[in-house]
Amino acid sequence: MKWSIAILLCFSVALAQKQPDAARSRYRQQGAEALTKEHARSKADLCTGAEKSGNAQIAQCLAEQGKVTEQDYLAYIRAIGALLRTATRNESAQLPQKRIPFDLAEEAWQQYRDKSCASMATQWQGGDQAPVAYSDCRLKLTWHHMNELADLYSDLWR
Question: Where are the domains of the chain?
């Protein structure tokens, strides 16, 4: 009887350890996909056709592309946050889903990005170049920040 309980306990521990591993693997995959997608997008000329139609079309295209990038950025930081919340010492335990310093840092960064781009775009205030400059700035800062996060949190992907 004691042996069957011991075997059952060992099996339960092994199963509990596989679940966090599977979750971490899923988070890593989601984050890697978002980052890879945005690396490719950052090298592409996203609004080539819009250039012929003028600044209003370019601004609209950049704003639409910015929405795609924002979704990938959010997927990426969610993956990082989830990996940070996953305890590394105790494989079967997870930290509570409370806010962690990473969450606060990303909120502050998003505010910085939006205010910096709004400030930069004031150079063209009142003209049709301001929306282009703002949307382009958001895209570029987001791409740079995703690369920065990839460097800072590279150990999470191992």
Answer: 2-157
